[in-house]
Amino acid sequence: MIRVILPPHLRTLAQVTGEVRVEVPGEVTQRHVLDAVEQRFPMLVGTMRDRGTGERRALVRFFACEEDLSNEPPDAALPDRVATGEEPFMVVGAMAGG
């Protein structure tokens, strides 16, 4: 099971509290984790990634094991500690403005 921490506004939209857990068949990558989250919570489709291109939305960041993975290729393997469920994959709403 992959542990995923969503920002408060997405937890509200998905009607969940705390972290969510999803099964990811095959290699654990950003793309596969987000696919699993969107499959389980279809109301989140388009909130983290653009519906058309599948690219990360500008004000959404991805973190794992204290590393910003936002600019990593979506098909790159996530750290082993995420794949084993030891550490969560975090989706964070970025701050904007001045």
Automatic annotation (TrEMBL):
<dbReference type="InterPro" id="IPR012675">
    <property type="entry name" value="Beta-grasp_dom_sf"/>
</dbReference>
<protein>
    <recommendedName>
        <fullName>MoaD/ThiS family protein</fullName>
    </recommendedName>
</protein>
